[in-house]
Amino acid sequence: MKVLFCTREYPPYVYGGAGVHVEYLAAELSKLTAVEVRCFGDQDHSSADLAVKGYPYDNPLFDNSDDRLKAVFKTLATCLNINADSVDADVVHCHTWYAQFAGILAKLCYGIPLVVTTHSLEPLRPWKREQLGRGYDASSWIERTAIEMADAIIAVSEETKV
Question: How far is 70 from 131, CA to CA, in rounded Å?
Fold first, then answer.
């Protein structure tokens, strides 16, 4: 069996709990089965059962976009790039809305089960609307769609149980 993790955060680009969670989960799981991590960044390394590949987040295509929408557009483009490389995993496991679109695409395009870990929920973070503007609606839609499409959901707290 091979597990594909899709995540925005992975060392050395970790800024919160989700990144720490994925780092340790991937390391421990790789002791039992093959693990591939596809993340936002420039990482590129592998060991016996753990391969990590970063995909660039910055994209000049969106330089002239509304500042509050750039994050959503760059995220969607990165998720497309993550799936442009053929997927040979048996299951895809996503963390946070940033990578959930990659998981949705992997499920639809490659026919593999989708597991979603909810570290937080967009409706519980209304301040994100100030940062993302209408992009908040897009991030909420991505998160909701991933949860609805998931074959399994892992909630990291009582607050994130759906």
Answer: 11
